[in-house]
């Protein structure tokens, strides 16, 4: 279960916090890559994925334990399942805001992002 959750979380991280596409014929790609790294660093300073994941895990654990108590199921198992699900959702929401920071930063630097 932990391996699956970790794998899903890694897919979110690598898939969401990525370099947005630009037209390579209209863009100096060396400058774009440098600016992307700057914006990525900026997003890491301002988006707190760990905080979002922790809050999600706490809420999920509480929800899972409550459901287990109400249905007479194993509280530990359901709390762990809720924590894993809530943590992944919380981390994904933090990553979304991280990607938004990257996109906004690049737009402010004058890049026209494709599909964003």
Notable characteristics:
116 residues; mainly alpha; 78% helix
Can you tell me about this structure?
The chain is an all-alpha fold and 116 residues long. The chain has a domain of 54 residues. The protein contains 4 helices and no strands. Helix 1 packs parallel to helix 4. It is rod-shaped.
Brief account:
The chain is an all-alpha fold and 116 residues long.
Secondary-structure topology with pairs:
Elements: H1 2-16, H2 29-46, H3 49-71, H4 75-108
Q: Give the SSE order as H and E letters.
A: HHHH
**Helix coverage percent:** over 70%
- Derived structural class: mainly alpha
Percentage of residues in DSSP E strands: under 5%
Task: Report the end-to-end length measured between terminal Cα atoms.
Answer: 34 Å
Question: Describe the biggest sheet?
Answer: none
Count of helix runs: 4
**Per the principal axes of the C-alpha atoms, what is the gross shape?**
rod-shaped
Low-confidence parts, pLDDT < 50 over ≥5 residues? 3-16
Please give the radius of gyration in angstroms.
18 Å
């Amino acid at each position: 279960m932990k391996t699956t959750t970790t794998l899903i979380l890694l897919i979110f991280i690598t898939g969401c916090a990525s370099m947005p596409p630009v037209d390579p014929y209209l863009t100096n790609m060396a400058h774009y890559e440098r600016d992307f790294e700057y914006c990525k660093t900026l997003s890491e300073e301002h988006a707190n994925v760990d905080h979002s994941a922790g809050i999600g895990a706490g809420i999920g654990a509480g929800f899972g334990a409550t459901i287990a108590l109400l249905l007479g199921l194993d509280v530990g198992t359901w709390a762990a399942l809720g924590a894993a699900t809530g943590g992944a959702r919380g981390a994904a929401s933090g990553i979304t805001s991280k990607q938004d920071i990257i996109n906004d930063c690049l737009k402010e630097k004058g890049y026209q992002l494709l599909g964003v």
